[in-house]
Design goal:
mainly beta, 39% strand, 24 strands, Cathepsin D, subunit A, domain 1, six-stranded mixed β-barrel
């Protein structure tokens, strides 16, 4: 169901920090949209391999140019899905929430239902991504994100053929508008959902708050907040840093940070991205090798993840992400895969301890040296701010959770 009106249209303040003081404090309307996370039954090794394929596709953006290029549109371990209405009256579609792409498209599983607000532009739409593809035709239609967020004449792709969604209906792309470049014939870019929410005055700032709960058996939900962030979900100030200027990370929700394990820096200040469509935390090969050496983990052939013993787990040190001069620590518990989920995926062994840091597959200096995915976002709230050109993070009640 589309969320009820009692979740909608409250007022918030976007607060600034001393480190990124150019953010302006002002009020803005916002609306929340719930989503669910569900295991898809793939093997752990498939998950690691597809995360890496997704990362490599992003790195190739500048090499292949803009034409027909997008990226893997699903998390390969859990699908972060939400219900979105299209048409008047709306037909509901189950869409994957993806900040690593920017188009909205439907029709992979449930056919597009034309209504009085449907308009066929006649333009072709084509997206390629790491483990699938989509081709179809562009339409404009009314899109209902929630009762308080109804977008008129939103560009949507309607699939003629697609691969890689496993029974879901399409994608809700929430990446920067430049990621639509070359995806629709005859135009350079098309307005995203967030662009149109702003231009149609449904929100007063182009800001997206992303909130995940830990992926335990009992709790698999999250929330998107358009036009701001959910102040009730954070327990610290939001730390903002400017979007990176380093390509190709600059094409996405990219920022600069360094990473340390214990007292040792394993990845000096460099560019990478935050991405809801990736499961693990991926770091450059040399940093991964150093992390492996320091933790004592051994690469498990069945899962593709580092595996540690209980004694090694007892000696794990914090993994710290230094963002804009503020440390964001992953505790030992936050560095391991939820043990309650081990047997839900082929290759996982009950009671085993797997680390959630993986190898991005290239040395530092590529312009995309890390990806922080779901396993980071379930510990820290994320704010994606196109209005001020910034990414922000804050602690939540789950930052120090021992649920894994």
């Amino acid at each position: 169901m589309i969320p009820s009106a009692n979740t909608l249209l409250s007022l918030i303040l976007i607060t600034s920090t001393a480190v990124y003081a150019s953010l302006v404090t002002r009020s803005t309307s916002k609306a929340a949209l719930s989503f669910l996370t569900n295991p898809n039954g793939l093997g752990m090794r498939d998950i690691v391999d597809r995360d890496r394929t997704r990362a490599h596709a992003k790195k190739q953006l500048d090499q292949v140019g803009n034409h027909d290029t997008s990226f893997d549109i699903r998390n390969v371990i859990v699908g972060y899905t939400t219900q979105v209405g299209v048409g008047t009256p709306p037909t509901e579609y189950t869409l994957i929430v993806d900040t690593g792409s920017a188009n909205i498209w439907i029709g992979a599983n449930k056919s597009y239902v034309e209504t009085s607000t449907s308009h066929d532009t006649g333009d072709a739409v084509s997206l390629r991504y790491g483990s699938g593809n989509f081709t179809g035709e562009e339409w404009t239609d009314t899109v209902t994100i929630s009762p308080g967020l109804v977008i008129e004449q939103q560009s949507i792709g309607v699939a003629n053929s697609s691969f890689g969604l496993n029974g879901l209906d399409g994608i809700l792309g929430l990446g920067p508008v430049d990621l639509t470049n070359g995806t629709v014939s005859g135009v350079s870019t098309v307005p995203t959902v967030s662009n149109n929410l702003l231009s149609q005055e449904k929100i007063s700032e182009e800001v997206l708050g992303v909130y995940f709960n830990p992926a335990t058996n009992q709790n698999k939900s999250g929330e998107l907040t358009f036009g701001g962030y959910d102040e009730s979900a954070v327990i610290s100030p939001v730390q903002y840093v400017p979007l990176t200027k380093t390509s190709p990370a600059s094409r996405f929700w990219g920022f600069d940070q360094s990473i340390s394990y214990g007292n040792e820096t394993i990845l000096p200040l460099t560019a990478g991205i935050v991405d809801t469509g990736s499961t693990f935390i991926m770091i450059a090969s040399s940093a991964f090798q150093q992390y492996q050496n320091l933790t004592g983990g051994t690469l498990d052939s069945a899962t593709g993840l580092l595996k540690i013993t209980p004694d090694q787990y007892a000696n794990l040190q914090p993994l710290t992400f230094n963002i804009g001069g503020v440390p964001f620590e992953l505790s030992p518990n936050a560095q391991i895969w939820p043990r309650s989920l081990n047997t839900m995926f082929s290759g996982g062994v009950s009671g085993a301890i797997y680390l959630i840091v993986t190898n991005i597959g290239s040395l530092p200096g590529t312009g995309l040296d890390f990806i922080v995915g779901y396993t980071f976002l379930e510990r820290f709230y994320c704010v994606l701010d196109a209005t001020h050109g910034a990414v922000g993070f804050a602690k939540t009640q789950y930052t120090s959770s021992e649920s894994n």
